[in-house]
Structure formats: C-alpha cells, structure tokens
C-alpha cells in the first residue's frame, strides 16, 4: 500500500482550510496533511527540502501565499520569496508527482473580463506579479497544475480572510463599507473551490484552469447580497466608482470563464446569488 501522504500548504488560510476539510471525500483512504506555517515554514527552504525527503508526498496542493495585496505592495521582497521562490522550490521537489498551485484572477488587468485560460496576463500589483511569475514556473512542468480563482467566501480560522468576513466585521463595528459599482469579480464559496480542486486532482489532468463563481458581480452587488443576508447588523454601504478612485491600480473586471474546468467537474460551479439562496443557514 502506498502510504505517502498528500500535502496541503496554507492549511491555516481560507482555501487551504476548506481543501483539508474536503479531503476525506476528495481523497478517501489517503492521509492528507494540512500544513500551517507553525508546522512547516515555507520560507525555511532547508526545512522544506528535509521534510519533503522524509515524507515523499504523492501530491502537493499549494494554497499558502502572502495574499493580502497591501502587504505585498509594502514588502515586495517578502512577497517574491513566499509567492515565487517557495513555490518554485516545491515545484522542483515535486517534479515527478502532481503539484497544484493556486493563483488569482488578479493576474489580468481587468480591461476585458470573462477571461479564459488563453487570455494574456497583465498584472497591476506586486501580489498579482508574483502570482503571474509563479504560474510560469509551475506550468513549465507538464505534470503540474495552476488553478486561478477569484474572491472566495467562507469562514477562516482568524475570521479575517474571506471577503464576507471582512464586510461582516466592518458592519459589526458600525462602519460603512465603500464598494465600487464598476469593479467586477466572480465570487465563489471556498467549499466549492475545494471540491473542484480535489476532482481536478483526481483526474490528474494537469494544466491551467479557472475555478470561480459562474456569476459576474460588482463589488457593490456582492455587498448588497451580504447586506440582505445580515439585516440584523444594520449594514451600511457607500457606493462608488472605480474610475474615480485615485489609489493603487485595481483591475476593473477580472471575471473568469470557467468552461474548461467545468467540463471536468461533476457539479456546476455556483453563482453567489443562487448559492446564498440555497444555503440560508450556512455560516457565511
């Protein structure tokens, strides 16, 4: 019997947490190790090499990243080390086994929207740049897979990772949330992302896939959906326009076309409006 484990990095983050939770269904009978920073610091390359040699994982699902864009902008060297160099090391170590890397819709400049996997990338931020570079490193190996996703919703360990958690915390604190009516994403529940990842990994069809919600929504529309879900918080929203925004560059429409991944899945990737309506009691 093959006793080699599956590694899921970033198990303390949002998507990693859901990927680990779905492991029993996604990889039944296989030991899945959810690795947090405390258990394996990916910035310690010697430790990563040593642990890989010791455990010889059969599959790595790499969810860990420095994912907060402001933090990446403030510390580009750290962002490069964690998002590019650590990814390159894992991909090198996993050269002969499947490796799944999570990337982002933010690798696009947002001028077109409805991006499929053939669309050229043009990142506007440090975070997006590191993801675009890491994608190229990973896809250099035909055994490896890149999954681009969009805003993921759910519950995280620290209660701060998901877009819905950030809005809820603001409203619980009596703050208004400023949301653009002309900035579009493809939000998806993290549990759907996790289920899709396991199915793609099981098919072992490497390459580049988009896995996101089937509904293109503006930031304002997303906020309105969540406000309707939590009327007891007396949510306040201040609508705005991205084209009038004077801060760091933000892509206006990074909605994703997920037809390629959808053909491989046993379930439809959900749109946020329908998913929220069908899961009224889900903690979200």
Please describe what this structure looks like:
It is a single chain. With 284 residues, the chain is an alpha/beta fold. The protein has one domain: NAD(P)-binding Rossmann-like Domain (Rossmann fold), CATH 3.40.50. 38% of the residues lie in helices and 16% in strands. It has 11 helices and 12 strands. A 6-stranded parallel sheet has the order 2-1-3-4-5-10, with helices on both faces. Helix 6 links the parallel strand 4 and strand 5. The chain is globular. The N and C termini lie far apart (39 Å). The mean pLDDT is 96.
At CATH level 2, the architecture is 3-Layer(aba) Sandwich
Query: Which bin fits the share of residues in helices?
Result: 25-40%
What is the ordering of alpha helices and beta strands?
A: EHHEHEHHEHEEHEEEHEEHEHH
> What count of structural domains?
1
From the alpha-carbon coordinates, what is the Rg to the nearest angstrom? Answer: 18 Å
N- to C-terminal distance:
39 Å
Strand proportion, as a percent range, falls in 15-25%
- CATH superfamily membership: NAD(P)-binding Rossmann-like Domain
In the sheet with the most strands, the strands line up as: 2-1-3-4-5-10
Please describe the biggest sheet, giving its number of strands, its sense, and whether it closes into a barrel.
6 strands, parallel
Low-confidence stretches: none
Shape: globular
CATH topology: Rossmann fold
Number of helices: 11
Structural class of the secondary elements? alpha/beta
CATH class division = Alpha Beta
What is the averaged pLDDT score?
96
């Amino acid at each position: 019997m093959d006793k080699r484990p599956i590694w899921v990095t970033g198990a303390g983050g949002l998507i990693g947490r859901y990927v680990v939770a779905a492991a029993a269904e996604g990889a039944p009978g296989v030991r899945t190790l959810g690795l947090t920073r405390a258990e394996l610091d990916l910035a310690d390359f010697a430790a990563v090499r040593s642990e890989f040699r010791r455990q010889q994982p059969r599959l790595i699902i790499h969810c860990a990243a420095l994912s907060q864009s402001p933090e990446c902008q403030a510390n580009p060297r750290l962002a490069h080390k964690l998002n590019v160099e650590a990814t390159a090391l894992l991909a090198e170590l996993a050269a002969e086994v499947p490796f799944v890397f999570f990337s982002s819709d933010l690798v696009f400049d947002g001028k077109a929207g409805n991006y499929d996997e053939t669309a050229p990338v043009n990142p506007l931020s440090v975070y997006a740049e590191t993801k675009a570079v890491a994608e190229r490193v990973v896809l250099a190996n035909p055994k490896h897979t890149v999954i681009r996703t969009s805003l993921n919703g759910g519950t995280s360990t620290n209660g701060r990772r998901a877009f819905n958690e950030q809005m809820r915390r603001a409203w619980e604190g009596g703050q208004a949330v400023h949301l653009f009516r002309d900035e579009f994403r493809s939000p998806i529940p993290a549990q759907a992302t996790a289920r899709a990842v396991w199915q793609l990994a099981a098919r072992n069809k490497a390459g580049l896939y988009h896995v996101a919600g089937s509904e293109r929504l503006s930031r304002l529309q997303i906020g309105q959906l969540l406000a309707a879900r939590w009327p007891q918080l007396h949510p306040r929203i201040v609508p705005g326009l991205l084209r009038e925004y004077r801060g760091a560059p933000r892509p206006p429409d990074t909605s994703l076309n997920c037809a390629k991944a959808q053909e491989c899945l046993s379930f439809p990737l959900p749109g946020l409006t329908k998913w929220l309506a069908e899961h009224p009691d889900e903690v979200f």
